[in-house]
Design goal:
7-stranded antiparallel β-sheet, globular, 7 strands, Nuclear Transport Factor 2, Chain: A, 2 helices, 41% strand
């Protein structure tokens, strides 16, 4: 487990650096205390798609994410998927965790993924099929 929010932030930067399909990135840390912070980022992929994410993190005995969103869209800004924990689907088994697949209205139950798991999911679908 990371010792500080700075260590956690560095772990996300390191995770992103491991995936060659990431063309460029812009990841920032809004540090609240040595143990809490809001991390936001955009990863620009070689095919023009983009992952926008944010995590509100508090380090306790484990990493606690008080909020997260991983929004992945294609080069035409069409949603591919988004994981988030916004509490607006109370009937799902893993409430508030869920995944939007292909559209805002197609929602499935999902466990809360880590940043690295989201990147692995993108990698497993690489390259993206052409939708045109």
């Amino acid at each position: 487990m990371p010792n500080s929010i700075d260590d956690y932030y560095q772990s996300l930067l390191s995770a992103a650096a491991q995936f060659p399909f990431i063309h460029s990135s812009n990841i920032s840390l809004d540090k609240r205390t040595s143990q809490t912070g809001l991390i936001r980022g955009d990863l620009y992929l070689a095919d023009g798609s983009r992952l926008h994410f944010r995590e509100l993190i508090e380090l306790q005995t484990t990493v606690v994410r008080h909020m997260y969103s991983y929004h992945y869209q294609d080069a035409d800004n069409i949603l591919i998927f988004r994981y988030d924990d916004t509490p607006h689907y109370p009937d799902l088994p893993n409430f508030p965790h869920h995944k939007h697949v292909g559209s805002q209205n197609r929602v499935v139950t999902a466990d809360a993924p880590t940043f690295a798991q989201v990147l692995q999911e993108i990698e497993s679908a690489w390259p993206l099929p052409e939708n045109k």
